[in-house]
Amino acid sequence: WGKQDARVRKQRLLVVANRLPVSAVRTGEDSWALEISVGGLVSALLGINEFEARWIGWAGVNVPDEVGQRSLTKALAKKRCIPVFLDEEIVHQYYNGYCNNILWPLFHYLGLPQEDRLATTRSFQSQFAAYKKANQMFADVVNEHYKEGDVVWCHDYHLMFLPKCLKDYNNKMKVGWFLHTPFPSSEIHRTLPSRSELLRSVLAADLVGFHTYDYARHFVSACTRILGLEGTPDGVEDQGKLTRVAAFPIGIDSDRFIRALELPQVKDHIKELKERFAGRKVMLGVDRLDMIKGIPQKILAFEKFLEENPIWRDKVVLVQIAVPTRTDVPEYQKLSSQVHEIVGRINGRFGTLTTVPIHHLDRSLDFHALCALYAVTDVALVTSLRDGMNLVSYEFVACQALRKGVLILSEFAGAAQSLGAGAILVNPWNVTEVAASIGYALSMPSDEREKRHRHNFTHVTTHTSQEWAETFVSELNDTVVEAQLRTRQ
Ligand code: G6P
């Protein structure tokens, strides 16, 4: 969590997100191991260091005892992190239930859970109550650490109720809220039983941000159609109070990746990987094992490609890193078995005694190994069915200055709006189209690869996470000043 420069007085920023950038594992009664968390939000925010920042969130572990809570608080303080302690029941109802079984699929156009409609309806109320309770617990911790003048930046679908809780504490707090997922069309959002309450809570913020203009537009139409409020070019107005709504496309700390490629251990990794995959083109997928990432669709497209192009069968390998996530949610457990079954079948079908076409890993890689893998890749496959932005596509581009590999990118990822001109855009549901794009990417002439890479590399290295955070926070500061001026007039 960015180094702070003591000589420059920086604005204090409280970043509030469900998950801290480090997850804790208990190693003794009062000892802890801290591991870096996965996910786009963490990878974007890690590089930000122009603020005097503190991160408030859940450490991903149940700590029922006071000794544990005290020692973990101390360990996290060294990383400028402040924990919110959530007990098992809350985690079950709020995180597994309302956040990841209801909001997450809905916001990614997968609809409300279908399987057992009655059970879902019954548990809905209790999960929403837990969601509000958890948001209130986050607000309590923010309020405890808040100092006048601080900027409070709330993140993601877990904390839609937080802006309201914070403004109820102190209406003068500068509060921004940013969504890292898509915001769906208002016709999807209106199916959510708690649709109005959530919109109203978000509108309590001073500034509301999204990755793309489309998501911002969907949010404004949800407010106008569902709440009957007025949408203006600047945002949403309710009884004279304007909530600014705008798009702030996120980026990565590209220098961190570029610098890593110069490290001796990364160079060693690159050499090993090149030897390991000698004579074959490397295709790569890096995803959390989540239904929105379209992993089965991607693998089926790869199978179709091998089926139709026997000549490539021993000349290409697909490395798929599928990082386990939300493993207590049944949908995610089902996905894991489904992916294993498909990979097993394809490897059985096209493998030989010495090689398999798909290397599937059920775990994350450390940062250096990941950079090396990005650097040796010829074609990256990002086939999300929907994705707020997708920073894997950015990370891949940042590591490709030498190889100039090709990015195949879903048109349903937010990144398609920024990297679309350099990538090959695909509809991930269309397995035939993706298979054809794989063929095209693998045999693309070098001048075309270079041109496409140049476009993407320029974007990724100029639209960084630093710039994203600075723009959002300065816009938030300005919004609050403008609102004060308006009320004085
Ligand atoms: C996405 C979400 C993040 C979340 C991450 C990892 O990127 O937008 O808010 O932290 O996934 O998911 P998890 O449930 O493990 O925190």
TrEMBL record:
Source superkingdom: Eukaryota
Family membership: In the N-terminal section; belongs to the glycosyltransferase 20 family.
Name of the protein in its database record: alpha,alpha-trehalose-phosphate synthase (UDP-forming)
Lineage of producing organism: Eukaryota, Viridiplantae, Streptophyta, Embryophyta, Tracheophyta
Section of the entire sequence shown: 160 to 648 of 1008
